[in-house]
Every structure is written in structure tokens, then in C-alpha cells.
């Protein structure tokens, strides 16, 4: 048995801000994917994944039945037969490894599931997001449900606010020098501790004001510029966003990257931002000239995900 593939995702804009109703934009990233399978169940990785799935199945059994129910008999039998999630998606890298797993489990075992083929009204999208949020909370403590939603639909998703989401058409890629890229920090990030730091910071009035007046403002502008294809305005707003993050989200940026982050802002060769919760994993980079960015970041591994 090998199930359908579910892809990783990249939240281009909106990390942390979407908790406070900023706009957000998530896109599928097909470079990484995962699928449920029962063959090759003897490797150490497969065994670890299988044990994780057994715990996840126990958790799913107790979810609110008015929200979602599963064919638990089949799920438990498949787990007993060695089923695991065979995935190339790096864990702790901010590209949605648990999201793809949640999407795969929902797709295969949910009863009365909402399928990707039906007319996806806003109501259905919000219901899916609520289901996925409840499922993914097993991994993160608190989840918006966006990563699994993106993985399940394999469509770009525009978040207008927490209760207003829609599939988005993004401008098709061009063969220009401008690019969005992933920068590998070489460190695995843990989502829960980063979210806890953020929630603690939210208790301070100054931090809340900064989030609303600066972070959310620039994030919203970035989303609008990106969707309109206004590249010139986009880079101005991404630069401002990069500054705000460096000044206010230092704990989420691995210490050895503070200098690199600042260099990008000062040289205008590239601008860095968080990819997911930070603390490690990937960082997202935006550049108007990918050659310049690669020269400036020659000691690091870059993966281009979108061209302007």
C-alpha cells in the first residue's frame, strides 16, 4: 500500500501575524512530499513514524465527534500492520512536515470527508481548517490548521483573517532575476517553544502595539503587493518587514544569523524573514538579484522557490 502524495508548504507571509489577524499567504512547495505506506516498515525511521502514528491514532479517537470522526478500525489495523509516513519533508524546518501527515490521515480515514473536488465554499474551507487545527494540535500544542489545509488542497491559500480564507491565484513565475529562496540554517527548529516565547511577549503592551502598527501593517502590504505582482513595492515592504523581525523577534532567529540578517538589509542584496515559527530550519529570503544574493550567501545552501 502506498497512498497519494501530500506536499510541503511555505507560508510566504503571515507567520505569527495570523495569530493576530494579519493577512497571510501560503503556497504548496512540491519539492518535498510524503505518503502513507506499509512496505519497507523495518527501517528505524519507519518504526519511529509507526510509533508516532499509533499515538496519533489514540489522540484522534478522542477528538470532538461533531467536528470529525474516523474509521478507527481500519486506521488501527493499518498501524498494526506497520503503516508509516514516508516523507522527504524535513522535520522542524517550517515547511509543514506534520501538516502533510495530517492531510494524508484525513484523506484516507475521515468519515464524511470534504473532498478537494467539491465546490469549496468559505464555510467548507473554515470547517476543514478547524478539523485540521484540532488534528495538528497533537504535534504543536496549538495549530491554526493552515499547513494541513494547504497540503490537502495543494493550492495557494490567502488568509484575509482567521475566519476569512480563500484559494488564491498567484502571479505565474517569470524568468527574472528576482527570487524567493529558502536558506538552510542547518539547525532543527522546535515550534512549541517559539510559540510560547511569542505568547509571553504578547503579554507586553509594547510588543502588541509593534505587532499591530508595524508587523501586521507590512505583512498585509507584502501580501497585497505579491498578489498584484507589484515587485517594486513588494521589496520595499519586505525590507521593512525584515527590519521589524530583526528588532523584535530576535529569539526566533538563530544567533549566528543575526549578522547575516542585518547585512542583507544594509546591502539590499537580499532580505531575510522567518519561515514558519523560526528557531532554526529554513529562513525565507527575497532578492531582486539572485546572483548577488548567492554571492553574498555563498557559504549557505539556497533553494529557489519562486522567480520574479
Automatic annotation (TrEMBL):
- InterPro entries attached to this UniProt entry: GHMP_kinase_C_sf, GHMP_kinase_N_dom, HddA/FKP, Ribosomal_Su5_D2-typ_SF, Ribsml_uS5_D2-typ_fold_subgr
Keywords of the record, alphabetical order, are:
ATP-binding, Kinase, Nucleotide-binding, Transferase
The name of this protein is Mevalonate kinase
Originating organism:
Dokdonia sinensis
Stored SUPFAM superfamilies: GHMP Kinase, C-terminal domain, Ribosomal protein S5 domain 2-like
Molecular function as annotated in GO? ATP binding; kinase activity
Q: Where is the GHMP kinase N-terminal domain?
A: 81-147
Q: Which domain of life is it from?
A: Bacteria
